[in-house]
Every structure is written in C-alpha cells, then in structure tokens.
Amino acid sequence: MANFDLLSSLAIVLLAAATHASFQLSVSMLTLLSGHALGKKTAHMQLMRLVGSFTAGAGVMIVLLLSTIALVLNVLLPVDTPPLMWAACSGAAVGVGVSVWAFYFRQEPGTSLWIPRSFARFLGDRAKTTQNPGEAFSLGLTSIISELLFTFAPLAIAALVLVQLTPTWQLIGILLYSGVALLPLLIVGLLIGGGHKLSRIQSWREKNKLFLQFAAGSALLVLGAYVYVERVFTVGVSAVGGQ
Amino acid sequence: MPAVKAIDVVKRSGHRPTEPFDRDKLTHSIRAACLSVRSPEGVAESTASNVVDAVVLWLDTKPAVTSHDLRRIASAHLHRYHPEAAYFYQQHRIII
C-alpha cells in the first residue's frame, strides 16, 4: 500500500476545500436572500436566523455529499486506490479548472453565473419567497447541489484522500473540508450581522469576479496537477525503482 | 402626486401576459431596494415617492412600455436620489 503521510493528505483536503470555497452560487443566493429579507423590514434576529439556517443547510449538504462519495468509494474500490482512479480525478479537476476559466461568470455586468437563466430565475424567486428558517435551510442545501457540476472534482479528490485515513482523521478531514468550504458564507453572514451594506458586499464581488474566477480555475489546476504528481507519477516511479 | 393614465407593461421575454402599470408595485420595489441597503424607513419612503413620480411623468407620453424599460428608467431616477440603492436595484436580477 502506498504510504502517503498524513500532512500531505490533509494538505490535499484543505486545497480541495479552498477550491470548493471559491465557487460563488451559495454566496450569491445568500446575498439575494438577505436583500429580500431586509427589503421586507425583517427584524435583525429573524434575518440572522435565516442567514444561519441557510449556512447550516449548505454545511449539512457539504458533509452529506463528502461522506456519501467517500462511502461509495470505500465500498467500490480496493484497499489501495488504483492510480487510474487518481488520474481520473486529477483529470476531472484540470477539466473543471479550464471550464471555470472559460465560463464560470457570464461576460456581462453583475455576478451572473454559468447556470441556465431559467434556473437562476427559479433560485432567485425561491430566495425572494423564503420567510422562515426551514425554507432558508433547504435553500442552503439546494445551493450546494446546484453547483455539483463544478464541485464534484474537489469533493471526489477529498473523498479519495479521506478513505485512506483512520476513522478519527476521516472525521477531522470532513470537518476541515466543510469548515473551509463554508468560510465565504460565514464571512458574508458575519458582515450582514455586523450591519454592513449588501451593496458594498455585492460591489466587492462584482469588482473582483475575474480574480475569483481566475483563482478558482487555477486552484483546480494546481489541485489536479498535485494529485497526479503525488498519487500517480511518484507511485509509478517508486514501483519501477523498487523492481 | 402625478395622475397615472392606463399604460400597459409588456413583461420580460413576452412569456407572461401584459399587465397594467401599478404605481404601488413600483413604489414597493424602490422602497425595498432602499431598505436592502439599510436606509432608514423615512428615507426609503421619500425616495420611492420621488422616483415613482418621475417615472410616471416619463410614462405620460407612452402608450405601453416594457418591464425592462420601466426598470431602467426607475433605476436612472433612483441613482439621482440614492446611488447605493440604485446599484442594488440594478444588480437584483444579475446577482445569480
């Protein structure tokens, strides 16, 4: 069995979580949800309940997705993850990274994302009609599923790493991944709770969207390359050297 | 407050049926944009009233308008009174 050290495994999980965190649909939906709530003169405590429930929903869905993918991989794969699987995941990360560079944000004003306009309108309408924490929680769940096309690569790589760790470190890895992936939502939630204006938050996002797009794509390319070199290339060279 | 003559608003993309211009609906959306950027209620009310009056004057020469044009003109007038609210009003449909 290839003996990858714990530090390197956690580094991959953290990098995968950081790329997950750079995707923007959840932050957009939280901004819209808060905007509608403030526009309806919602009390501050109720606003914070909505923000908290949305963030909790997103967190629960990240944990569920990561655990489910890890469980499926654990059942389907042999004890030693085949290099082909690592190569497929790193290839997916590179492919998604290039896609993020090419069309994650639409080439128009605002922070419009790649998702089809009819679906974006549906999500916007749902955010508008959300009035209680239960609805906000389910909206948080939905926001994570909606970006699965882009987040599947980092989730799969993190899951592949996690299944090779001991149960305690698997749990720590899942918590680390979820915590880092949720950071943007937590930061925006704190800003809203602290009384910052949504126009300033949205303005910052709009001004920096090209940088965010470049960073997300680049992080996926780096993740794919790192995983390929460490888990496929190095193992192959070691095997040849040992013969 | 200028009187509003009957004007049809053609909805975006033409899928939904045309509806008559509703002053209260526009007032509500402008007020909500102001409140979204944490303006005091009084400021939101007076801004919404001023913007809607200006839009109604613009509508006076039109038999029908598109909802997109209505939003564009409302946004331009809102920018004069409350630039931050105008920014958020414009961004509303392009956040996601």
Low-confidence blocks of residues of chain B = none
Determine the fraction of residues in helical runs of chain B and give it as a percent range: 55-70%
Q: Helix count of chain A?
A: 10
Q: What is the first-to-last residue Cα distance of chain A?
A: 15 Å
Number of continuous helical runs of chain B:
4
State which percent range the strand residues of chain B make up. 5-15%
Report the biggest beta sheet of chain B as strand number plus sense, adding barrel if it closes.
3 strands, mixed
Structural class of chain A: mainly alpha
Along the chain, the helix and strand elements of chain B come as EEHHEHH
Coarse morphology of chain A: elongated
Which descriptors apply to this entry?
heterodimer; A: 243 residues; mainly alpha; 10 helices; elongated; B: 96 residues; 3-stranded mixed sheet; 4 helices; 3 strands; 59% helix; globular
What does this structure look like?
- The complex is a heterodimer of chains A (243) and B (96).
- With 243 residues, chain A is mainly α.
- Chain A has one domain (6-235).
- Helices cover 81% and strands 0% of the residues of chain A.
- In chain A, helix 2 packs antiparallel against helix 3 (44-76).
- Chain B is mostly helical and 96 residues long.
- Chain B has one domain.
- Chain B has a three-stranded mixed β-sheet.
- Chain A binds chain B through residues 25, 28-29, 31-32, 35-36, 38-41, 108-113, 115, 120, 123-124, 195, 197-199, 202-203, 206, and chain B through 31-33, 35-38, 41, 84-85, 87-88, 90-96.
Element layout with pairings:
The complex is a heterodimer of chains A (243) and B (96).
Chain A: H1 6-21, H2 25-39, H3 44-76, H4 83-103, H5 117-129, H6 133-146, H7 148-162, H8 167-193, H9 198-207, H10 209-242
Chain B: E1 8-10, E2 19-20, H1 23-36, H2 41-59, E3 64-66, H3 67-81, H4 83-91
Parallel strand pairs in B: 1-3
Antiparallel strand pairs in B: 1-2
Helix pairs in contact in B: 1-2, 1-4, 2-3, 3-4
